[in-house]
User: Fold this.
Amino acid sequence: MISTISADFAEIAEKVTAGRRLSREEGILLFDADLFTLGRLANLVRRRMHGESAYYTHTLHLNYSNACVLSCGLCAFYRPLDHPQATTFSLEEIGAKAEAAGRAGVREFHITGGLNPRLKLEYYEEMFRTLKRIVPAATVKAFTSVEIDFFSKLYRLGVDELFQRLKSAGMDCMPGGGAEILGRRVRDIICPEKISGERWIEVQRRAHANGIPTNATMLYGHVETIEERVDHMIAIRQLQDETGGVQAFVPLSYHAEGTAFPDLPPTTGFEDLKVYAISRLMLENVPHIKLLWTYVGTKMIQVALEFGVDDVGSTNMEERIVKAAGANHFDAPSVEELTWLIERAGRAPRLIDSLYGSGNGNGHPAR
Assistant:
């Protein structure tokens, strides 16, 4: 297929072309491959799965509280519970934000926050009911596995019972945050107070068993090795083999400002594109590879569409967590601007909700 690469890469190319799964060793080898070779292979897989469709949505982020009992070194968003900058939205504030979001045509509410033990479960249930009442066509994508584990312990509920209560109140799916790198060595350095990688996977597994699809992230560009990146991808792939509940894999480049590791250099565009492409090649059983422009900028959107990405994220109204870590990519594109970027890249825009539906509340695939 590609005569300028080694026999090892030629074998990998043949496997990708045939739709066969790559091994851990091959995944590690991919990080030494030529970027454009990776792009061609990843684009082949993307086109096989999605044709020329490129997905995006219109989102209001509800980072409802930055008060948190953890002090993760990689987080610039959190504040201790009694810190003067600790804030929590009231249900009235959330209702007002939902009203404005409804008028703006939002199709997704993305809800994450700090681990705040002063909030009752009824607060979240009423939040979901409020959102569904005000904007019934929008989906509710809420809580990381870390938050779910915290709620389960705080409210003394099993994870399954917790999921059923949240689902009854209006929860549609989960984002993929808190995964960072699943390997223990890395977590012991960057987030020792968070749940283990094994527990993160188990919470996702229970979400899927309760009919709640999820995303899965990977935070890269800090202290992890190439091997640990590949092992992370394989752990997600194995979960997907078991449950089929992972909708999208979301690589996230690390932003160091305001964290406990401020001297770590930022990732390069070259590295970002490699990670997108390799994610597409390694995770052949996960439907979507998702880019968040808040991490890499809107200029990356059109390029990444040639490197395995099929979902370019959303408008990200009021996103606060990445901004707190120093991300300067807050050009905040509108739906119209995202549509234009996708069309100019030669792709067919597909405006969706959190479930990759048309955004009309019926969960049907986008046309």
Remarks:
- Confidence is low (pLDDT under 50) at residues 321-327, 360-367.
- DSSP finds 15 helices and nine strands in the chain.
- The domain at 51-351 is CATH 3.20.20.70 (TIM Barrel).
